[in-house]
Fold this protein.
Amino acid sequence: MIGTILQTFGRKYMDVTLRNGADYLVRIVECPGLWMDDAALAALSADLRSVAARTLDAGQLTYGVFSGDKDSMGAVIITLVSRRDGTPVAFNALAVMVLDTAPHPTDVLHLGLVMVDPDERSKNLSWVLYGLTCFLIFFRRQFRPVWISNVTQVPAVVGMVSEMFSDVWPGPNQGRRTLNHLLLAREIMATQRQVFGVGDDAGFDEERFVITDAYTGGSDDLKKTWQAAPKHRDPRYNRFCEETLDYSRGDDVLQLGLMDLAAMRSYLARDVPKSAVLGLLLTGGLVALRRVILPAIHWADSTRMWSILRPYRTRDE
């Protein structure tokens, strides 16, 4: 694990492989469309489609990471879980959204599309698929809070996000909607619909953060009935979704929250298996350390331009 992370110190983007117990490998790949060659990108996209083929009853998704093109893969962070023999069994395609907010742009990590092979759904992979990448990015941002978003109609996912992150809204007994929630939601719905496959004709209820008739932008095959939507162990989340969403029409809820220190403590204490906590903290520390070492490497390399600190261009550039 340490060797894999050390090999990434000279890279601009994260590419980390970790073990999850004795049976699984977890690979986290940041913005592969910006640096992977065509063959590697096609192989990664094929792994994602392989999981989707085991997950969907019929049809084929037509947006995002399944297309395999560089543009779609250039603003996502892929968390891919495979068996030790290399067979892919689950993934999360987390999108990086940069919102035009004042006084500075705001980065929002959209939890994105999560798929798990039906044979693996009882193997406790949720802490990897929903929290691990956000946790590592939080470390790399020097513990500065980062906003997360989630669009779903699945009660199990609504409850998981509500319990894993801080200041999540909406949800049952989740406090109040703040101005930040509202402004970020408006910007997401105005400029980022393509990220989660919601068409321009879908409505948005600002009071409840409900996207109405959401499955019209390429994500049609993800639409579920109330009976088919996986339920949460806490009935509050099930009641919330049943009362809030119109499943026959195809509604989704837009959740916004924060990965901050409180969420990190809760994540480590409740969601991460005890056997994995030490390795996860070590990984987070090394990922954060990379942000210190990489600038030093750039500074020492006098042959390359580095922004305003070395604004000239060498003969080789």
User: Anything to note?
Assistant: The first helix runs from residue 2 to 6. The mean pLDDT is 81. The radius of gyration is 20 Å. Residues 143 and 270 are 19 Å apart (CA to CA).
